[in-house]
């Protein structure tokens, strides 16, 4: 059974940076597309970024605007989300998700497409 464990959230001032990590276990990591989503209080869960398994192609939500970078280390079974120039509106619980697939990363931009989810990590950006 695939398990995902996020870490790296916390409190940061606007303009600061955080790096989220998601540790994967229970499957062949390189076969999985990995995604990051977030959910702010009172809002629906929204797509942030996705990365494919072997080719490591990436795709981002428009609001990222070049501030975030998704990456993966297939040797460590870990996916990362480097977040720079954080804004108060980035405050949310951030979730890691996984699904097997071999399409381009842009295909995997909705939560319904993912099979496995982590428990989430809180990111709070103060103004």
State the main characteristics.
single chain; about 130 residues; mainly beta; seven-stranded mixed β-sheet; globular
Polypeptide structure, described:
The protein starts with a strand and ends with a strand. It has strands at residues 3-7, 10-13, 18-25, 32-39, 46-51, 58-60, 68-73, 78-83, 92-100, 116-117, 121-126. With 127 residues, it is an all-beta fold. Strands 2, 4, 5, 6, 9, 10 and 11 form a 7-stranded mixed beta sheet that branches. It has a 4-stranded antiparallel beta sheet with strand order 1-3-8-7, with no helix packed on it.
Distance between the termini: 40 Å
Q: How can the largest sheet be summarized?
A: 7 strands, mixed
What is the element string, with H for helices and E for strands?
Answer: EEEEEEEEEEE
Count of separate DSSP helical elements: 0
* Radius of gyration from CA coordinates: 13 Å
**What share of the residues does DSSP label as strand, in percent?**
over 45%
What percent of the residues sit in helical stretches (DSSP H or I)? Answer: under 10%
Any idea what the shape is?
A: globular
Tally of extended strands?
A: 11
Instruction: Catalogue the unreliable spans.
Output: none
Rounded mean pLDDT is 96
Q: What structural class is derived from the secondary structure elements?
A: mainly beta
